[in-house]
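Quick one, tokens below:
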């Protein structure tokens, strides 16, 4: 379509690499677009751990918190000088912060922290006219969690039975920007017409667990 992109690798669970990554981003912006700043940050890195509360290990807990909370907090902090005034930040949460499903206590807790962090970011970055929102997808047929929703018929049917529209989501339902997931919802938040939407949690789940 005539666009230009750059791919930079990052392990968001390792905050010690963030300074070097930010330097890479800055250099890439200068080399490819002759600018020092960008408009939008989408914090989408994530992984899932399924384990009952009583069986969740400290290692699993730390893994989730490092990626979903600590990584988002400090990577966004490091990137703030590169984000334009009037820019946008979108953080990814989950429908499991509104409803409960045994086995996801640690994961949902991490995402709950992100929803609170989103509101604080919106409050504290408002002086720069940076809007910050949360997108909360429901069950989607993607590679997430080892593709369990997509590839396990029993789990797929379970989530379908709990969704008002009678099925789980597929990537095309909500687009392609989130590795084929949640593009439309994210893109709509980033468009100029929605600049006044701020500090909101927007669920994209087809009416799951109503």
């Amino acid at each position: 379509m005539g666009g230009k992109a750059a791919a930079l690798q990052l392990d968001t669970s390792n905050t010690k690499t963030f300074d070097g990554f930010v330097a890479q981003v800055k250099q890439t912006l200068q080399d490819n677009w002759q600018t020092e700043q960008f408009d939008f940050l989408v914090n989408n890195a994530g992984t899932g751990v399924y384990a009952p509360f009583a069986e969740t290990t400290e290692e699993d807990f730390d893994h989730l918190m490092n990626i979903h909370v600590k990584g988002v907090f400090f990577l966004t902090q490091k990137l703030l000088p590169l984000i334009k005034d009037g820019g946008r930040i979108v953080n990814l949460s989950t429908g499991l912060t509104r409803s409960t499903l045994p086995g996801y206590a640690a994961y949902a807790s991490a995402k709950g922290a992100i929803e609170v962090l989103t509101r604080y970011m919106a409050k504290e970055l408002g002086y720069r006219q940076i809007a910050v929102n949360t997108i909360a997808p429901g069950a989607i047929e993607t590679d997430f969690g080892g593709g369990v929703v997509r590839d396990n018929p029993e789990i797929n049917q379970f989530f379908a039975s709990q969704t008002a529209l009678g099925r789980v989501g597929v990537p095309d339902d909500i687009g392609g920007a989130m590795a084929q997931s949640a593009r439309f919802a994210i893109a709509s938040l980033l468009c100029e017409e929605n600049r006044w939407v701020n500090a909101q949690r927007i669920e994209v789940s087809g009416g799951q667990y109503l």
